[in-house]
């Protein structure tokens, strides 16, 4: 998203909204971020003496796998940003700020809900033997990465 310096000098404030694909607004994002639908962006640029203050928010629905129960769930992620720009040319481009603020507080250890108990041992055995669960399978090396994640979370 861009703001025109000429317009800002004339009107002092400019508000914009945009809806776009994750590729165009949050390009180059990590694999675990699975977007559902479009990314919404709204921003306001305000001329303050020799600078432009831009505030806004960016949001999208994402699909994650819960690190505890491994079930897929949908998550609404919203990030706010605020940045001061000085005039450098005619265009103020806020794309990097939008992208970084969105990515910086993506949940690293997504949990479907705060009370998630994970996969219960007897449930997994009875109904779906192929579903594994982190706490009980201490010897399975495939779970080392997940155990690490859980440990880091407890710190
Ligand atoms: Zn869960």
Explain this structure.
The structure is a single chain. The chain has 155 residues and is α+β, with helices and mostly antiparallel strands. The protein has two domains: 2-115; 119-155, no CATH class. It has five helices and six strands; from the N terminus they run E-H-E-H-E-E-E-E-H-H-H. The protein has helices at 5-11, 22-25, 95-104, 121-127, 144-154, and strands at residues 2-4, 13-20, 34-48, 51-65, 72-86, 91-93. The strands form two sheets. It has a four-stranded antiparallel β-sheet. Zinc ion (ZN) is lined by residues 66, 68-69, 71, 111-112, 116.
Q: Which sequence of strands runs across the widest sheet?
A: 2-3-4-5
Succession of helices and strands? EHEHEEEEHHH
Class of secondary structure makeup? alpha+beta
How many strand segments? Answer: 6
Mean pLDDT: 85
Q: Distance N terminus to C terminus? A: 38 Å
Q: Which hetero ligands occur in this complex? A: zinc ion
| Helical residue percent band | 25-40%
Query: Could you give a short account of the major beta sheet?
Result: 4 strands, antiparallel
Low-pLDDT parts are 125-138
Give the tally of structural domains. Answer: 2
The radius of gyration over CA amounts to 21 Å
Please report the number of helical segments.
5
């Amino acid at each position: 998203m861009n703001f025109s310096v000429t317009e800002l000098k004339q009107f002092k404030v400019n508000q914009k909204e945009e809806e776009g694909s994750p590729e165009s607004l949050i390009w180059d994002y990590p694999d675990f971020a699975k977007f559902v639908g479009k990314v919404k962006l709204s921003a306001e640029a305000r001329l303050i003496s020799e600078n432009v203050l831009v505030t806004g928010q960016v949001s999208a629905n994402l699909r994650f796998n819960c690190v505890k129960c491994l079930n897929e769930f949908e998550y609404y992620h919203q990030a706010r940003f605020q940045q001061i720009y000085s005039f450098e040319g005619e265009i103020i481009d806020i794309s990097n700020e939008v992208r970084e603020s969105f990515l910086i507080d993506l949940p690293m250890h997504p949990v479907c809900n705060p009370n998630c108990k994970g996969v219960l041992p007897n449930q997994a055995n009875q109904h779906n033997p192929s579903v594994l669960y982190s706490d009980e399978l201490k010897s399975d090396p495939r779970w080392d990465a997940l155990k690490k994640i859980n440990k880091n979370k407890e710190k």
